[in-house]
Amino acid sequence: MSSKKPEQPKGPSATTVDRRGFLKGAATGAAALAVTPVARAQEPSAYRASFTAPSYQQMQRDAGLVELPAPDSRGVVRPGSDLMVQALKEMGIEFVASNNGSSFEGIQESIANYGSPPNHMPEFITALHEESSVDMANGYAKAEGRPMAVMLHGTLGIQHASMSIFQAYNTGTPMLLIVGRDVGFIQAHTADDMAAMCRSFTKWDAQPTTLSECIDTLHEAYRQAVTPPTGPAMVVIDIELQKEEAQDFDLPRFRPAVIEGVDTATAKDIAEKLLNASNPRLETGMFRTPKGIGAAVELAELIGASTSTTSTGGPMGFPQRHPLCGPGEESNYDYVLGLEADASDLSLKRPIVNSLTAQRDVMGIGFGSLREDYAPAPPGSEPTPLDRSPRQPQGTVLKVDAQASIPLIIGELSRLITPAKQREIEQRKARHARTNRETFLTALRVAVEEKKKGWDLSPVSTARIYAELWPLIMNEDWCLASPSNFSGAHHRELWEHNKPYSYLGTQGAGGMGYGPGACAGAALAARSRGRFVVNVQPDGDLNYSPGALWTAVHHELPMLTVMHNNRAWHQEYMFLQYLAGVRGRGTDRGHIGCVLRDPFIDYSKMAQAYGMDSEGPIENPALLTAALDRGVRSVKNGKPYLIDVVTQPR
Amino acid sequence: MKILVISVTGLLIGFTAPAATAQQEPVISDANAGAQLYYDHGCYACHGYSGYGRVDLNNTGSPWLVNEEIFRAFLRARADVAPVLPSTSMPNYPANALSDEGVNDIFAYIRSLPDNQPDSADIPALRTILESAEQREYKP
Predict the structure, then answer these.
(1) What are phi and psi of A448, to 5 degrees?
(2) Considering only CB atoms, which chain A residues are within 8 Å of B130?
(3) Inter-chain touch A449–B120, beta carbons under 8 Å
(4) Which residue from A319, A470, A575 is facing B138, i.e. has the nearest CB?
(5) Which chain A residues contact residue B81 at CB under 8 A?
(6) Are residues A641 and A506 in the same domain?
(7) Is A348 helix (H, G, I), strand (E, B) or coil?
(8) Residue A625's CATH number
(9) Contact between chains at B79 and A582 (C-beta distance less than 8 A)
(10) Residue A5 falls within a domain, yes or no?
(11) A476 close to B (CB below 8 A)
């Protein structure tokens, strides 16, 4: 569905009177009942009222000749925005992150006051910047595999949020973006086709013109966001629709998305090939939701296949320490099935959202990473220590959702497996488990010897941060929500990634400022589920969006932030040094524009300014363990914590 | 990203490297002055403040660190063609930007860097990581 051109609103309560004038009149309460919009326009301004004669209406009121309404009467008793919030409830939207704005004040007021209890499912999450609010939705969806909502204020909100939306589009993260539109208030904040500003990097958008359309488009936006190719979907909602009287409007029931897998014949063919193979193999990637991982585990166990994982590179991956995860006893695989991953025989891969870019990019912007001829590696597709199998030639690829397909394959397998085959499979599983365990431990021993380099030196090595953290959180239900590509990604070799949300992967488009918001979003998901979010936070990244620290404190989010404070944007520093070198001009001015010194930034004080408990800067590595321990205990007690650690560059 | 991470040795095709097993020779230059140059020229960006980083310098047995002459030749022999794409490869250090004396001082500083690799068995965190991995069974 493409965006609709704005039309004159026609809702259940539409009358011949202009809606805006009617509603604004109604909002003034009793006076509006006696004063027409025309009459109001002729009233003196507040300034002139100090020296002009009272109006006829004022004199009437002063004389007690105006009948005041009953104290409990309201102009609107069932506002449209209550129904919008009810729709969000029925879709299971837990949170709406937003930096407030008048163009969606109707919905915001409904979140705050509608429902029992109010401000629950969804809960309003206060963000200090729209970019952070979208990052929160990104982190939440990566952790949970389902969307939360974001509200944006008109043209300004969209533009503030656009970079984060772009990043979410790059990772195909589902989210529901609600944009308020208020024609007639501040003209710079509105536009005819608001969603056009980011149409080339959203999956779907709509601008409904009636309350009925609005509910339908909210439902459809959710379905579009979660249906492959997944991605951000946007609904632009006029303020009139939020404020109009819904009267007896019957809220339609939400119909969840139906996501189809392979057909029965294909499922049977795959099942037979898996069953007939003496050493079947599953190559797995990033599944759509945790259910997909569960299905993949069930399939691997049913058929006794060794399995690869992307769980150390991104979310929704096969559990790393599952006994079948690893190269298996032998790498002479005779049937390799890809589940959201490339494989030599057959791959089931859902379409990615940039397959839609050509039709959405109506302005011909041509974002490099979104072109159809550019195929970025999907999140979590980086090779992992366990993924030692030689690169397979690409076999047949079916553009179909693996998660929806696996149950069909399992169904066919269950009918085909004989007791004799079952015994063979059990023996193979035991052999795989032994080999995979030893493979993991061997890789870990090698990693430990590598990570001890510079252990006692100051500034603190990035490896030591990850190594010291792991013993403190390994028995928690943890989630590493910050991208680790700039801090050495040492968790990939030292930690065990067994949950869908163990590691949430990188920014999407490499945009800075993502970390604090994404971690806060992951912590929103974690708060009611007893989880613990770790944020190894680069200093350059934090300075784009520090306000997310306040959000973490305000909403009591379980988030431990450990600064990777290398006092520079070191990637750019290295680039500039190289260029200066090859130009023969020396590297001693390569720091210009790349370092954060003179003065150093005190992140502990920054956190305290936002109300977050903190300590540091820590330069002596001997002080690190105790500080991390204090941080972990604080978060477990419900208080987010920041530790500023001055680190080696990488 | 792979395109950006060009190996140092890849840029040195044609430069004859001495044997990796060559003995390191004594150092006579000023390590303190070299420390300042190491910082000013941003060597730490890739090699860490103490020689451990994206590319380690400490006790690596690198053939380029046998003596000052070889180290100097290594720094001067970098690519001098402007790359189209950003690169995090080792920069070129021409004589007009870093004197021979400066190179020698940096060399002295690198050779003075401590070889800080404690036994992993003496590091509680690393010991715990290994022990727990061996004992831990997978739980869904």
Answers:
(1) -60, -40
(2) 444-445, 448
(3) yes
(4) A319
(5) 582
(6) yes
(7) strand
(8) 3.40.50.970
(9) yes
(10) no
(11) no
A440 and B133 within 8 Å at the Cβ level: the answer is yes
Same domain, A398 and A304: yes
Q: What is the pLDDT of residues A535-547, one digit of tens each?
A: 999 999 999 999 9
CA dist., res. A567 & res. A545, Å (int) = 16
Q: Is residue A480 part of a domain?
A: yes
Do residues A285 and A312 touch, judged by C-beta distance below 8 A? no
For the stretch A599-611, pLDDT in tens is 999 999 999 999 9
Q: What is the distance, to the nearest Å, from the Cα of residue A587 to the centroid of all Cα atoms in its chain?
A: 39
**Which of A442, A472, A504 corresponds to the end of one domain?**
A442
Burial category of A390 from C-beta neighbours within 10 Å (exposed 0-12, middle 13-18, buried 19 and up): exposed
ipTM of the complex: 0.84
CB-based contact B125 A625, cutoff 8 Å? yes
Same domain, A436 and A395: yes
Query: Inter-chain contact A587–B126, Cβ cutoff 8 Å?
Result: no
| B89 or A36, higher pLDDT | B89
Higher pLDDT, A577 or A283: A283
Q: Could B97 and A588 be called an inter-chain contact, meaning their C-beta atoms sit closer than 8 Å?
A: yes
- Across the interface, of B51, B114, B120, the residue whose CB is closest to A448 is B120
Token code pair at residue A464: 């030591």
CATH topology for the B2-135 domain: Cytochrome Bc1 Complex; Chain D, domain 2 (1.10.760)
What are the structural domain ranges in chain B? 2-135
List the structure tokens of A616.
């540091």
| Residue A381, in any domain of the structure | yes
What pTM value is reported for the model? 0.87
Domain range enclosing A512: 452-564+602-645
- For an interface test with A, give the residue of B55, B89, B123, B129 to mutate (most A CBs within 10 A): B129
First to last CA, chain A: 46
Using an 8 Å CB-CB cutoff, list chain B residues near A648: 44, 48-50, 52-53
Contact status of A591 with chain B (Cβ, < 8 Å): yes
Do residues A374 and A510 share a domain? no
Q: Is residue A270 part of a domain?
A: yes
Quick: pLDDT tens for A162-187: 999 999 999 999 999 999 999 989 99
A369 to chain B, any CB pair closer than 8 A? The answer is: no
Do A503 and A420 share a domain, yes or no?
A: no
Per this entry, what is the length of chain B?
A: 140
C-alpha distance from residue A575 to each of A49, A570, B112 (Å):
65, 8, 27
